[in-house]
Amino acid sequence: MRIPVACRKPLFALALCAFCATLAPAADPPAAIGAAQPPLIPMKDFFRNPEKANFQLSPNGEYIAFLQPWETRLNVHVQKIGEDKVTRITQATERDIMGYVWKGNSQILYIQDKGGDENWRLYAAGIEGGPVRELTPFEKVRVDFVDRLEDNDNEVIVAMNKRNPQLFDVYRLNVNSGEMNVIAENPGNIAEWKTDNQGRLRVAVTSDGVNTSLLYRRAEADTFHTVITTSFKEQLSPLYFTFDDAALYVSSNLDRDKSALYEYDVENGKLGKLLYENAEVDVDRILRSKARKVITGAAYMTDRIHYQFFDDARRELQEKLEMLLPGYQVGVASMSRDEKKVLVVTYSDRSYGSYYFYDTTTSKLQKLADMSPWLNEASMAEMKPIEYKSRDGLTIHGYLTLPRGKDPKNLPVVVNPHGGPWARDGWGFSPEVQFLANRGYAVLQMNFRGSTGYGKAFWTVSFKQWGKTMQDDITDGVQWLIQQGIADPKKVAIYGASYGGYATLAGLTFTPDLYACGVDYVGVSNLFTFMNTIPPYWELGRKMWYEMVGDPEKDKELMTASSPVFHVDKIKAPLFVAQGANDPRVNKAESDQIVEALKARGIDVPYMVKENEGHGYMLEENRFDFYRAMEGFLGKYLGGQVEVVAGE
Asked: How many Å apart are CA 160 and CA 153, to the nearest integer?
């Protein structure tokens, strides 16, 4: 079962999912890069929409599609490879298009919500332009792909909570006529559906909140039966069917701490061949060649993403691309259906990234675009993997970014815990981190206990520890920086989004002398009201949330103690709060409560609310407003540089 997350960080770029293959082990605290301090880079250069992003290759390998700004919004554009003509095929003016896929070689499917409500609707657009067709015109209904049916140009399989807001039924949808038919009605407990390689719905995962079951059937005409039931802590996650559709490839932590890749005998409910395991981290991503029907490797993340290849052809492709594009992390974004044409992406901690087209038959590499050519890599800061010990001896991994050209001593620091909390930070380009480093701040990110990818024990030790040992891990990171002499103990701020926003409030509340100020971005302030306002489609996981965070009835004392809104009398440091009015995950009431409670004490709290946003600011102009305000706020209390813009 997929665990719902309270939040991940706002998505400023939509295509930063490349993978690297170089390992840089954590070491002693890094020294500053030996270069002059870079010029102050305009804030808008960090947070403006990318020039082009999220490239995808058509199935025949003849066209590329990508997102590019039009009327300040990201819209889908299509271009034939080798030609200059670009056709814009969508006309979004209210919100960016957040995601799209090819459907055959002649049309694009894409999703959009309204005002950040995350009720995604599905649309279709032909690559020659023309009218856009809305395929799921339903109010307060969310659509998710179950199977894109890549070999079927006319249909997709989707899940929608149209009948019941809490449950997703499965539909076969004709993208040309708009006709849709229910092919599976959710009986009330199914959290995930899976198809085989022929697009037949044959696996489902159920949940009662704390237990999950894998259901299976040999054919769509058969009845599902239960193969295995486990606690939600014991995970058996179906990834793909084997190419003969007889078994499954799964990621599992059954009888082990770190999840590994296996073949799974679904007929008899038994783990089979171990494909790959890693002693340090979970492994849950499998690489495959659909054209050759071969499992080509696995991907996993320690400090960065790495590959373990099982297939010589895929290994050789990776080695050749890395040779052609030295100095960057190189990933394969997509391939044509025959896998002879490849869309390649490069990135680093100092580069948003670039896209290339590679023809395997000619070995010709063609550059397509840089995502943010206005940012000079030489002016960006290095993101260095680090680790430190928590007070109870747990190893905490993270990243430290130091401002260029400054002695790494007695620096103002912004501590930036991630959202989730059951997610993790990774190595790569972050506009937020680079913006803060350019203003003269050291930035500390840490994967506190509960962060995903580090095994079952590291995850479960975080249960019912919001504001407690999870927060201690953040505090211990600050103390580590102070002990190393990197941080000025009087100039440490904390900033985060969603759970990171909660951690900001908890930091100011439970360690009031540690921080000079804080920025809470769509953060949780009251665990009781947060539990009562989760989206209806998370309802199947409510009991799991109770076990992981707290039960409002059984754990009332615990949750009261961990809710910052009930302890605002302890807050000393200035606080800036930002919120989206339509946030379906962390309701606006969470921010209202903390602001009102502080105002009742006579404290003026800067409070930014955007009426056309949800869980994070996706619109470019709103991002500009937020980061301009945050820049001034941090400059006032930490003394970092602040851009002076004429007329603003």
From this structure: 21
- Catalytic residue flag (residue 117): no
Catalytic residue (choose from 498, 562, 563, 591):
498
Q: What is the pLDDT of residue 616?
A: 95
pLDDT at 98: 87
**Is residue 627 domain-resident?**
yes
DSSP state of 527: H
Predicted confidence at residue 539, as pLDDT, reads: 83
Question: Would 587 be classed as within a structural domain?
Answer: yes
Q: What is the reported pTM?
A: 0.92
DSSP state of 616: B
* Annotated catalytic residue 498: yes
pLDDT on residue 31? 40
Dihedral in degrees, nearest 10, Cα atoms 148, 152, 154, 157: -30
Q: Mean pLDDT for the chain?
A: 92
How many structural domains compose the chain? 1
Low-confidence ranges of the chain (pLDDT < 50): 1-34
Instruction: Give the range of the structural domain holding residue 510, as residue numbers without chain letter.
Output: 387-638
Catalytic residue (choose from 96, 196, 303, 583): 583
CATH number for the domain that contains residue 482? 3.40.50.1820
Phi (first) and psi of residue 231, to 5 degrees: -65, 155
* Active site annotation includes 583: yes
46: Cβ–Cβ under 8 A, 6 or more apart, which residues?
375, 431, 432, 434, 435, 438, 627
Q: Does 465 map to a domain?
A: yes
**CA–CA separation, 533 and 527 (whole Å):** 10
Task: State the pLDDT at residue 648.
Answer: 63
| pLDDT for 630 | 98
